[in-house]
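Technical annex B. To support the medicinal chemistry partners, we prepared a structural model of the target in complex with fe (ii) ion, based solely on the information shown next.
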Amino acid sequence: MKQSSTSELSEVLKSVNEATGLSNKHYTNQKIFNLEKEHLLFNKWCGVGFGKDVPEIGDVAPLTFLDLPLLLVRDEKRKVRIFQNTCRHRGMILIEKKCNIRGTIRCPYHSWCYELNGELRATPHVGGPGKNIHKSIKRSQLGLYEFKSHLWHDVVFLNISGEAPSFNKVHAKLIDRWIEFNQPLNHSGVDSSIELEVNCNWKLAVENFCESYHLPWVHPGLNSYSKLEDHYHIEEKGHFSGQGSHFYNQLKGKNNMTFKDFENLSEKWKTGAEYISLFPNVLLGVHRDHTIAIVLQPLSTDKTLERIEIHYASSNSASNKYKSMRKKNRTLWNDVFKEDIFVVEGMQKGRQGIFFDGGKFSPIMDSPTHIFHHWVASNLKKNGEMEI
Ligand code: FES
Ligand SMILES: [Fe+2]
């Protein structure tokens, strides 16, 4: 079926009262998936991992993001860097398992060695047996390819095309909104991590996170203390959308023990919490005592890996004393995210319905979702005609 996507995108770009949602093929079609990979992910600041993946100097962690082999490195100055995990000699994959490196990153094929800052340090026998240099091998020009990256809320953001303005410029509005949370974050290992593989397109996870409309039916437990009417929309066209709650209920342990708060928070955060989808693929939540960060890793048109990390406001909360409370907190979050699986997977299945037209938004309840669709459509349209 040949369709003009450009005219469909115009429908998505209408006001929320008039607009339809993105059509099925944005969730099922491989060509559109590839286009979106380029225009919505590689061209933007996408989340690929976490600083906590490489906590110590010399830690290296390989990861694959949309087929791209990446290498996360914590360098000598504690800076997180991301390199292409490909040797400059014959293109061998450099690191296949997470480890700590003392010294240099050594390619297992012919032993070219790279510093943690990516510089090529050694090229054994490159000029013949016993000769480690050759005039045509200019080491200064053969360092590892380094991507433009930025660490915020412990999420490693990457601009793969290298063409985006700085992260601080692009996301100034959210950085400013949450400036009070610009404090050290504490991750406590396995009891702070959740990983879920869901059978849906990555955009459905973004869409489900930014709206509160589904709470009464999908999260009856949450809804019992934080009701639909206690929520408000967060909308920043072109950047992010989400929801806030006026009734964040702090977790209580034995003797009413609570996790320690971030320092100097304003009154709003005593009972407030906010959940924001930061376009394209990072979902974030803030509370007085912990944060949530989710990186959505698109695996295929209908498969997504959700990496969910909990960070605590205080190092004390990450200590042994709080172990059972952290376990409880992880279980609470795990349950909430699991409750969402049947809806994101159900929406994916629903998109096989050939007469689905992209859907009709509630102008009041679905405006955060419309903000995301608008962002998708405007970025695709900007890049010209799309005929499939
Ligand atoms: S491919 Fe890496 S040293 Fe040859
Ligand atoms: Fe949900």
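Notes passed to the chemistry partners:
The chain has two domains: 48-151, 171-379.
The mean pLDDT is 95.
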